[in-house]
Every structure is written in C-alpha cells, then in structure tokens.
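Dear support,

I submitted the protein below through the web form. The confirmation email said the job was done, but the results page showed an empty box. After a refresh the structure appeared. I'm attaching both so you can tell me whether what I see now is the final result or a partial one.
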Amino acid sequence: MEGLTRQLFRRILFLAIMLGTSPAMRAAEPPPPPATTSESSLAASLGDSAPVVVWGRTLVSYRLALEFPDVTERARAAGERISQALGRIDATKLAVQKVQIGAARGFVVSAGPLFLLSVMEGDLDPAAGVTPEVVANDVMRNLRELVRDHADQHTVALVIRSVVQAAIATLLFAGFCTAALWLRSRLLVRVTRTTREAGHALRVFGYDWRPVLLGIVTTLTRLLMLAVILCGSYLWVTYVLGRFPYTQHWADQLGQYLFAAVGTLASGAVHQIPNLIALVVIYLVTRGLIRALNGWFSAIESGNYFTSWLDPEAARATRRLADIGVWIVALIIAFPYLPGSHSEAFKGVSVFLGLMLSLGGAGFVGQIIGGLAAVYSRAVRSGDYIIVGETQGVVKELGLLTTKVITRTREEVTIPNSMLISSAIRNFSRAEGNMTVVSTAVTIGYDAPWRQVEAMLLRAAALTEGLLKDPPPRVLQSALDDFYVRYELTGCVPSAAVRGEVLARLHGHIQDVFNEHGVQIMSPHFENQPAAAVVVPRDRWHVKLNDPGKPGPT
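What the results page shows now:
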C-alpha cells in the first residue's frame, strides 16, 4: 500500500510539471497538439536537425518542432533555459523520466522540480539505431559535467592556477618558436654552402642543377619548419584551452582530432608497408641496372671497349637516353604502389602535368631531337672547331639541350640544339687523323705574278710554328674578281684548341713575306681604265723568291 501511494505521488507530481505548474516550462515549451506516431515519424524524417548547445557543447539534436515555429527555435529555447539554470542545478538531483504527450513518446531530463529538456522519439535519427532513453541518459551525464565545470569556472583559485599555467605554456611556446626559426636559418645557410660546394657533381645532361636543387631544398626546409611551428601551435592551443573549464570541451575535441589524425596516418603507414617494400625493390633493381649500363657505356667512352655501331661521343648521349628510359619505365611500374596514386587528386595532378608537358614540351623535345641528330649523325663532337650561324669556336660540351662553344676570344657561347638541325654546320675538325683545318684568304691585284703569290703564301706557311707539314699546306685561286685574284691558303693544325693562335702567327708571317718581296696586300679598285694594261710581263712569270732575311725588290 505504501509503495502504491509513493508511485501515485510521483505520477501526480510529474503530471503537474508537464501541465505547467512550472512557469519556465509553460513559457518555454508548451505541450504539442495531439499527433499520431506516423506523423511524428514523418516530421522527424522531413525536418532539419538543430543542436541544443550550452557553453559550446552539443547536448542533443532536435528534429521535431512541436509547438515552436521551427526546430531551430525549439533547440535555442532549450539551450537558453539550461544556460540560465546552470547555477541553480543540483547535479545529484538530475534524473531521466519517461513521458508521453499525446501520441509522442520520449524522456525528459530534470533536476528536482526544474525541467531542463525533453528527448522525443521523433528527435532521433532512425539510422542511428539508438533509443530515446539512451540519448537522455547521455544528456544527463553531460549535464553533470557541465554543472561541475560551471562551478569550477567561478572558483578563484582554479582560475588563478589556470592563468599561471597558460602563461608558462605561452612562454615555453614562444621559446620553441624562436628556437625553430634559429634552426631554420642555420639549416638554410648549411644547405646553401653544401650546394655551392657540390660543383660538377650536380651537373646532369649538361645542365647545372644546383640552383634548382637549392630552391627545392630551401622551400622544403621552410615548409618543414612551418609544419613544426604549426604542430607546436596546435599543442599549445590545446593545452591552454584545457586549463579552463569553459573551454575544456574544445581542448578535448582538439585532442580527439589530433589522435584521430595520428591514428589514421599510422594505420595508413602500416597498410602501405607492402607497397613501400615494392617501391624499395623497384628502386634497387633500377639502380643496379643503371650502374651496369653506365659501366658499359663508360668503357666505350673511355676507349676501353670498342663496338662498330657506337662511337665514344654517341655512347655518352646513348647513356643519358638509357638512364632516362630506365627511370621512366621504373616510374611506370612503381606508379600503382605510390601512396595515394588511386585517389582522384593524384589523378587530377597527373592529368594537369600531362597537359602542361603537351603544351609546353614542343620546344623541349625539339632541343633534344636536335642534340641527338647532331650526335648520331656525327656532325659535331666535343673538341671540334665549327661555325654555326655567326658563332665559331671549339665545341666544349654537347649537351642534351644545348651545345657550348668557346670562341677565339675565349667567350663561351651556348647554342640551342635546335639550331644544329636548322642551320648549316661548318666543321673544320674532320680532316684525316682528326686534325683541324686552318684557312685564310688574301686578294692581290692582277699585276702580281700568281706563281710568286702562291710561293710567298707557302713560304709564310712553312715559317709558321704549329702548322703541320703533313699534309702539306696548299694554295688555291678561289676567285678571279673584277680587280683582284682571291688566293686561299689551307693547312692543318693538330687540334682545334690551337687553331686561333696558329692562324694569328700565319697572318703575321704572310705580312712579313709579302713586305719582304714588295707585294702589296691591297685589293685595287679602279674608277677609270688605267693607261697601261694591268698584266704581268712574261719575263716576270717565274720570279724566284729571295732567301729569307734578304731585302726584296724595290
């Protein structure tokens, strides 16, 4: 009898609360009109979700509007009601009670006579698979923590301790940032010095990659230090927010995000271990194959191994092509094993890079084809003396994209390889025995015996140091112009490196010999017909040259 009376009393008390004995209840959440369960379910499925937020913490999400204009207004009213009652809530009196309003069933969370909020069946997501009672109990536990944090927030000692801890953490974070910036500057100085000291070790395919490598390493170093500072900032913000009860939930969320991210990365790394092993194997096999090919091509370049179909100069270019081809094949094989290679972002980047290469790679491919055509046609080799366009000099380096030429004035001229297939190449280094041809021309009037002129030119060639005697120099009358005869002296020097110096000495001896025999190296031009015929008398056709050192005719 006593138990029945107690149960009846509780029901009467709860009915009084729900019918409006509490002014807050009457003003905030009036009872809804009668509705069927199917209507409530339909409203839940069609209505938007609105969270009940108190102190930045989401307690529950509503889907039913009941008698409010919309579900958002209902959630806002419940949040304001709990916020205003936080100081009056007794955490020990929090309870969950079942309620039915018309056809709508659910649970209410109250603290003694103080109504806080309700959780109806229509408020739940059917796909979540939870009951209103479970959600209401979770709300009650969160309210207990909220009431405790609200009480702690008004404790002076706790606030002072939190401020001191936050200040110490801020000072440590400032020191950490300063140390990170100092370390970044030291790393950049070290990277710059190491890259500059690398020298020819970073020259690939005839191109100095040091500026490019320096830019990449510098950017990566700065990004690494920025990532370190951002991680430190994340930890600092998480720690400081965790010192204060009002922001404790934010710190908990940041910590959960961090642990979730680390867990995702760790799980991804574990699942990628087989792929990483495959990538390492592909890299090792590729490196081994390239070393074997480089050893074989290097033997041909140095002359230690001879093959009829590949000369040393072509072996160098072929080695570069083989390296590129092997790496491309290795990259194609390794592509499926790269982390994220199957993602849409990776595919998009691949398409973008392919489009860029298609649009901007025409000139690049043209340079490569020009260099290969020059190498495999054997039109140009390193050390040759050539003339291309207005440039003449010794070929210093025949690269994959450009050719470097050292002129007679010791200037280095870079010629795009596309010019090698679009311009005529005059090569002076293809005489027998890999000698370099030297030639010069003079124009002498018709009044000078041509036999004497030829003899003087050969005398000057014989006096020139560095001009080879075998094959012997020769003189050709290349043109009979209107006022003079053009004589061309041709000889050979042992290498293209000394061509300029030998040619300069030859010009000096030509002047000395012609001066010695009284023959002017001036090209006459007549405005009027001379009174006497400009011819060589027969008695002077076979004039002998003077001995060296004796004065010539006056």
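Response: this is the final, complete result; the empty box was a page-load delay. Residues 1-46, 549-554 have pLDDT under 50 and may be disordered.
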